Input
Amino acid sequence: MDFMNYYMPTKILLVEDVVLKNSSLFNNFGEKALIVTGKTSSIINGSLSDVTSVLQKEGILYDIFNSVEENPSLETVENIAELGRVQKSNFIIGIGGGSPIDASKAAGVLINNPTATRYNLFDSPHLKSIPVIAVPTTAGTGTETTPYSIVTDNELQTKRGICQRVFPEYALLDVKYLMFLPAQITINTSIDALSHLVEGYMSSKANVVSDALAEKGLKLFGECLNMIKEKDFTCIVREKLMLASTIAGMVIAQSGTSLPHGMGYALTYSHNIPHGKANGVLLKSYLDFCLDENKVRKILYLLTLENLDDLGDFLNAMLGSVNTVSYEEMCSYADKMVLNNDKLKNHTSPVTREDILKIYTDSLKI
Ligand code: NAP
Ligand code: FE
Output
């Protein structure tokens, strides 16, 4: 039997009108909430008004920070924390894609520790956050069930995870918020979830529970594959993708991500390639490099694909190719990635700079 280590404290509720039907749960966290969201989508998809109406109903005061950008910066995290500290917020409700929810987790740590600075997000793992409730409006990152928060560090010119572990108290899932997600964001984010399932399944930290979850998530994704190809995003398809994404979060909460995520951050930081696409373009060459052929075959089977070339064709058709990265840039990304022990240790065999460079050059058109 594999070594077992499974911990998932987030309560997950998935039901139509989940926020409206569960207003009383917000009472558990104090009298003052801080809502953190992106620029416009939460207004359009109704998630923000659902949350504000239940807070009003429950008599909970709230402030709103509504300008979290994609790939949130540490400056934004500090601005959210400043608001939360001044307003003495007791808990945070992160509404949106991974960016606002991740920013909520990092800001929650700073709010709970008034003297902490951005640097403590990377050197003081014992710091705790105020409670975070996650209301996801994309189906991709799974951040509603992970303890991770990925932020953009403009000083170090990269994206990186904070060192604290912040599991949301609740993940409130309602597919109605995702119904008008544009097709390309739906595709990119779903492929982020696929990357989590694949990297989590292949990880050196995978265990019997995370594998069972990953297999279920891959099966759900496989059931949606043809509809993703056709961009036929019905409510049923979106709900399956939402579930696959949340399950994928539960997988990487145990197993972490590995090479595609570590390598993709450079593509996002330097070439503004959306997170899901950045992982997805590397995924086929990464699987070519993985040694556990049985697990690779199982992934393809669950995705209803014959072989890795079929996976490559699917990803290429959905994401398009990336041809803006020079060979010199790939070399410099490989130089940095080979020092990223957090990601390398999640791969089951030793990884050299040349292995990393080969995955880049095989994946990206020069
Ligand atoms: P995102 O950056 O949160 O949002 C992307 C875009 O989608 C934004 O323009 C947003 O608009 C829009 N959007 C969000 N929900 C929408 C909806 N329902 N309808 C229409 N548009 C909508 O995208 P994401 O892919 O979900 O998150 C990516 C971030 O998560 C990255 O920083 C990545 O590194 C991180 N991530 C975290 C984890 C983790 O475990 N913590 C795992 C993987 C990735 P608005 O700005 O108007 O809201
Ligand atoms: Fe991701």
Remarks:
- The longest strand covers residues 32-37.
- Residues 38-42, 45, 70-71, 96-99, 102, 137-138, 140-143, 146, 148-150, 159, 177-178, 180-181, 185, 189, 192, 275-276 surround NAP (ligand 1) (CB under 6 Å).
- The domain at 182-363 is CATH 1.20.1090.10 (Dehydroquinate synthase-like, alpha domain).
- The mean pLDDT is 97.
